[in-house]
Amino acid sequence: ARHLLGIEHLAPDEITTLIDLADTYATDNRAGKTHRDVLAGMTQINMFFENSTRTQASFELAGKKLGADVMNMAMQSSSVKKGETLIDTALTLNAMHPDLLVVRHPSSGAVDLLAQKVNGAVLNAGDGRHEHPTQALLDGLTIRRAKGRLHRLSIAICGDIAHSRVARSNIMLLGKMENRVRLIAPPTLMPAGISEFGVEVFDDMEKGLQDVDVVMMLRLQKERMDGGFIPSEREYFHRYGLDAAKLARAKPDAIVMHPGPMNRGVEIDGTIADDINRSVIQTQVEMGVAVRMAAMDLLARNLRAARAEAAA
Ligand code: CP
C-alpha cells in the first residue's frame, strides 16, 4: 500500500508483517542497535493539527532512528492560523517534496482527503473519531509480547468508546486477528450499531470483565462531547473506573492497558496504572516507537519501488 490510513484497509497478513518487523525493531532499540540507513535521504514532515505527546514524539524519534530528515510543523504557529485550508497547506508542503507525511487532525476523514493531494506516503496519526492505526498496531505488539499470541484472546475495551478512534482501530485489528472483543461503556458512550462489528456489548464493568485476558481502558474525551452529556468524574469512576475490585473479575494474569493520556481517578485507579505486575502502559509507549519505525520502513520500501517502476 502507498499510505497507512487505517486498520480497515489492512489484511491480517499485512498486520502480522508490520507487527513482526516492529518486534525486531523493538528488540534492536533495547539493544541500542541503530538503522540509520533505512530512511537515509528521505524527508519526513510531522503535521499535528491536534495535541499529542506520545504519537508525535515517537514518530519523530522513529524517523530519526531510521536516518530520515525529520521536520515538525508547528501547526499552532503556521499559516493555518491565518485561514489557510488543510488542502492548501498540504499542497504547499507537497511542493517541498516530502517522502513521508505524518498527520493528526481533529476531523474524521481529513487525513484520507490529504492523502489524495500529495505525492509522498501519508501515515494517519489519528483523525477525529475515525482511526488511529499505529496505536492499534502498537497495542497488538504489546499484547503479543505479554501473552505470547495475538489470537483467541478475550479483550475488554472499556470507557468512552463513542468518541474513540483508538477503540475503532483496535476493534478492527483485534477482530481481524480472531480475538473475542468485548466493549464496556455506559449506554451514552456506546456507539449505536457497534455490535455489527462482531463485538459483545456490556454496560456493567464487573460482568464485562469476567475472565478476560486483556483490559484496555480509555480516557473520557470531553473535548469531543460538544454540548452532549458529560458524566460526573466521581460517579464515572465509581461505575466504570478500573479499580482492584473490578480488575479481580478478569483472569489473574490479565494485563491492563491504556493508550494515554490517562486521567487517574477518572477511568483508572493510579495504583493499578503503576502496578508493574499488571500494567503494560509503559511498554505500549516503548512499542510505539518500534511500530512507527516498521510502518515508515515498509511505506518507504513501497515508495522506492513505485518510483523505480515509474523511472523504468
Ligand atoms: N495515545 C495517543 O495517541 O497519545 P497522544 O495523544 O499523546 O499522542
TrEMBL record:
Gene3D superfamilies: Aspartate/ornithine carbamoyltransferase (3.40.50.1370). This is Aspartate carbamoyltransferase. The keyword Transferase applies. It is an enzyme of class 2 (transferase). One of its GO terms (cellular component) is cytosol. GO terms for biological process: 'de novo' pyrimidine nucleobase biosynthetic process; 'de novo' UMP biosynthetic process; amino acid metabolic process. Keywords: Pyrimidine biosynthesis, Transferase. HAMAP family: Asp_carb_tr (MF_00001). It comes from Loktanella salsilacus. Its EC number is 2.1.3.2. Catalyzes the condensation of carbamoyl phosphate and aspartate to form carbamoyl aspartate and inorganic phosphate, the committed step in the de novo pyrimidine nucleotide biosynthesis pathway. Reversibly catalyzes the transfer of the carbamoyl group from carbamoyl phosphate (CP) to the N(epsilon) atom of ornithine (ORN) to produce L-citrulline. It holds the Pfam family OTCace. Residues 2-144 form the Aspartate/ornithine carbamoyltransferase carbamoyl-P binding domain. Signal peptide: none annotated. Pathway: Pyrimidine metabolism; UMP biosynthesis via de novo pathway; (S)-dihydroorotate from bicarbonate: step 2/3. It catalyses: carbamoyl phosphate + L-aspartate = N-carbamoyl-L-aspartate + phosphate + H(+). Belongs to the aspartate/ornithine carbamoyltransferase superfamily. ATCase family. Carbamoyl phosphate binds at R54, T55, R104, H132, Q135, G260, P261. Residues 153-298 form the Aspartate/ornithine carbamoyltransferase Asp/Orn-binding domain. One of its GO terms (molecular function) is aspartate carbamoyltransferase activity. The keyword Transferase applies. L-aspartate binds at K82, R165, R219. The lineage of its organism: Bacteria, Pseudomonadati, Pseudomonadota, Alphaproteobacteria, Rhodobacterales. Coiled coil: none annotated. Heterododecamer (2C3:3R2) of six catalytic PyrB chains organized as two trimers (C3), and six regulatory PyrI chains organized as three dimers (R2).
